[in-house]
Each structure stands twice: as C-alpha cells, then as structure tokens.
C-alpha cells in the first residue's frame, strides 16, 4: 500500500469540559486520536474507558486509541470497539508478547498498533510488522502535550518505511509529538502515514484550518 496522509487531532489538547464541541470543530479530520494515560506508565493521568466511550459515541470519525498504560494485556481488549488500539512495546515483556496482544485485539475486532518511545529502537519489530496494523513512533516523550518535536526519531520512520515497502505490507506509520505544518512535512518525507496533532490544532481560532494546513504540508512533501 502506498504512503497515506491521515491527520489525527489529539483530544489530549482539547478542553476536557467541552470535548463534544471541540470534536465538532474538526469535521474534516481523518482520525480522532484518544490518549489514555494511567499515571504509572507515564507521569500523567488523562482519562480512561468511560470518557473514551463517551467521545466515541459523539463522533463518526475513525477512533485511534493510544494506551500509555501498564499491563495493556489486561486493559487493551476493553477498547476493542474503537477503530484502532495502540499499546507500548515498553509496557509488555517482549516482542512476542506484543505480537500475542495484537492478535488478541485483532480477534476482538479492532486494528492493533504498537508504539515506541523516542529512545526505543524499532529494529526488534522489523521482522514482525505484518502482525501490526500500525507502528506509532513517539517524537516526544509520552505523557504530556505541547513538547517540541524530536527530529532524530525520523531515522526510525525511514527504517520502518523501507521494510514496509520492501515487504509489500499495509502497516501504517504514525507519528505523535510536536506535529505542526513544518514537522509534518519533515515526517512525510521520511515516510509517515498518520499525523497526530494536538496543541497545533485544538485551541487555535480555526482548528479545521490547522488540520487542512498540516494535511497539505504532508501531502506536498510526499508528492
């Protein structure tokens, strides 16, 4: 599958007291990104399944859940009604455990993604990419919004793109952290398919215009 350009606004940067209204401000988003944090795997607490379910009921947009939590084997299957569920490689014992959990999620009816922090290499995943629908490369340390983009992670994106294309896989590459117009273009050139954008979208005067601008920058770099 050829490289895609999908924009996924992250509600972590939205107004938690008015999530439905904020979601309505980005009707042209391709995906909606939902960050679940447990204050254990990452040093922050966002929300859990009840809030995520409330969001899902208020949108027709594809829902992309990012679990920044410990013990995803226990909790991830509860999110199977969402479009995609991503958990962290660092939160499971090893790659075999990650492959097994991805299989469980797929069997439950959702896509399965695996995420890596900025300091975690992707090489252990390269022979297992067919077992995942998505690989999320964190371009900031997970746990807080509004951080600056770390361009050094783009080497991981290029390694993933090379293997995905060589093997003819449908696995998507997602990037999350510090994504705006300029960094989306850099990321697209490296091979990203899905762009998670939080503070660069929500809180702006025209969130949908920001989504459109990020998409145009990424698509232009791919072209």
From TrEMBL:
GO terms for cellular component: cytoplasm. This is Ribulose-phosphate 3-epimerase. It holds the Pfam family Ribul_P_3_epim. InterPro entries: Aldolase_TIM, Ribul_P_3_epim, Ribul_P_3_epim-like, RibuloseP-bd_barrel. It comes from Corynebacterium terpenotabidum Y-11. It is an enzyme of class 5 (isomerase). One of its GO terms (molecular function) is D-ribulose-phosphate 3-epimerase activity. Catalyzes the reversible epimerization of D-ribulose 5-phosphate to D-xylulose 5-phosphate. It catalyses: D-ribulose 5-phosphate = D-xylulose 5-phosphate. The active site is at 35 (proton acceptor), 176 (proton donor). The keyword ATP-binding does not apply. NCBIfam families: PRK05581.1-4 (NF004076), rpe (TIGR01163). A divalent metal cation binds at residues 33, 35, 66, 176. Keywords: Carbohydrate metabolism, Cobalt, Isomerase, Manganese, Metal-binding, Zinc. Its EC number is 5.1.3.1. CDD domains: RPE. One of its GO terms (biological process) is pentose catabolic process. Substrate binds at residues 10, 66, 143-146, 176-178, 198-199. Pathway: Carbohydrate degradation. The gene is rpe. Belongs to the ribulose-phosphate 3-epimerase family.
């Amino acid at each position: 599958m050829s490289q895609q350009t999908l924009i996924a606004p992250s509600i972590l940067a939205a107004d938690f007291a008015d999530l439905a209204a904020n979601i309505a401000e980005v009707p042209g988003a391709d995906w909606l990104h939902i960050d679940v944090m447990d204050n254990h795997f990452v040093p922050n607490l966002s929300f859990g399944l009840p809030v995520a379910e409330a969001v899902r009921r208020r949108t027709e947009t594809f829902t992309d859940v990012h679990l920044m939590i410990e013990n995803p084997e226990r909790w991830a299957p509860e999110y199977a009604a969402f479009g995609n569920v991503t958990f962290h490689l660092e939160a499971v014992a090893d790659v075999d455990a990650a492959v097994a959990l991805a299989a469980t999620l797929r069997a439950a009816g959702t896509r399965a993604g695996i995420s890596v922090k900025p300091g975690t290499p992707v090489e252990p995943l390269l022979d297992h990419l067919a077992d995942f629908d998505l690989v999320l490369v964190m371009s900031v340390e997970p746990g807080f919004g509004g951080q600056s983009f770390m361009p050094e992670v783009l080497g991981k994106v290029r390694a993933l793109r090379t293997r995905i294309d060589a093997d003819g896989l449908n696995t998507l590459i997602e990037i999350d952290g510090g994504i705006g117009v300029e960094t989306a273009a850099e990321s697209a050139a490296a091979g990203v398919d899905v762009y998670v954008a939080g503070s660069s979208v929500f809180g702006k005067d025209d969130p949908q215009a920001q989504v459109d601008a990020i998409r145009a920058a990424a698509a232009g770099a791919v072209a």
